[in-house]
């Protein structure tokens, strides 16, 4: 769970890194089956991190402070 803006930025950076890896894999992998097998793990991790970002951004800072207490 993302707890602050620093962790948010780290997560966004990780998402961008995973997306870049997928883009590279898409350009370089010649076998579609191998691509799909490799891409599925990246996509699952991107989905998980995007959900965390969405949850963090949907909570107002004042709400987060009251739930942390």
Account of the protein in words:
With 69 residues, this protein is an all-alpha fold. The protein contains three helices and no strands. Helix 1 packs antiparallel against helix 2 (32-57). It is elongated and about 50 Å long.
Quick tags:
69 residues; 84% helix; elongated; single chain; mainly alpha
In short:
The protein is mainly α. It contains three helices and no strands. The model has no long low-confidence stretch (mean pLDDT 93).
Indicate the topology.
Elements: H1 5-28, H2 32-57, H3 61-68
Helix pairs in contact: 1-2
Shape: elongated
* Number of E-type strands: 0
- The percentage of residues in β strands lies in under 5%
- Please summarize the sheet with the most strands: none
Count of DSSP H/I helices: 3
What structural class do you assign from the helix and strand content? mainly alpha
- Tell me the span between the first and last alpha carbons: 16 Å
Uncertain segments are none
Specify the helix fraction band.
over 70%
Q: What is the radius of gyration?
A: 16 Å
String of helices and strands: HHH
Overall mean confidence score, pLDDT: 93
């Amino acid at each position: 769970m993302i707890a602050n803006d620093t962790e948010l930025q780290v997560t966004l950076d990780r998402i961008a890194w995973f997306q870049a890896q997928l883009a590279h894999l898409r350009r370089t992998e010649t076998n579609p089956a191998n691509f799909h097998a490799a891409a599925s793990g990246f996509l699952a991790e991107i989905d998980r991190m995007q959900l965390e970002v969405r949850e963090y951004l949907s909570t107002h800072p004042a709400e987060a402070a009251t739930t942390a207490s």
